[in-house]
Design a protein that fits this description.
Distance between the termini: 54 Å
Number of domains: 2
Strand content: under 5%
Number of helices: 7
Shape: elongated
Structural class: mainly alpha
Radius of gyration: 23 Å
Order of helices and strands: HHHHHHH
């Protein structure tokens, strides 16, 4: 599997063709050579690189962080630099999880207060009307 079309690359990684082209445009994926017919021809190194990018993005890393881990900003990062990026990302993920848990608790409370009746009075609407969005998330 030395010559890979963009369709096969997309199928192998689960990354949409448009996204692959976007990654090339922003420089996170190297431009592949082209066939005589101007078709992009990828190789196993492109597949490995795109798989790394996909996995990083699936884990929630921003494109700038992926760019840094790939050494595209300056030079290849040290393990300590990648650790620092990952630790910062982990901290953000934990914050989002805590926010989602608070949101879940709030939604659970207000849905339990609803009698599901056929009157226009609804405690969920009342609760959402009284709370600003940050209060709902940070309760």
């Amino acid at each position: 599997m030395s010559d890979i079309t963009i369709g096969r690359l997309s199928s192998a990684t689960g990354v949409k063709i448009e996204t692959i082209r976007y990654y090339e445009k922003i420089g996170i994926m190297p431009d592949p050579p082209r066939s005589v017919g101007k078709q992009r021809i990828y190789n196993p190194s492109h597949l490995a690189r795109l798989s790394f990018i996909k996995r990083s993005r699936d884990l929630g890393f921003a494109l700038d962080a992926v760019r840094s881990m790939l050494g595209l900003n300056d030079e290849a990062p040290s393990c300590a630099e990648v650790h620092a990026l990952t630790t910062a990302h982990l901290s953000e993920v934990r914050k989002k999880i805590a926010d989602l848990k608070r949101l879940e608790r709030t939604l659970s409370v207000i849905t339990k207060e609803c009698a599901r009746g056929d009157t226009p009075d609804c405690p969920i609407i009342d609760a959402l009307s009284l709370l600003c969005p940050t209060e709902v998330v940070h309760r």
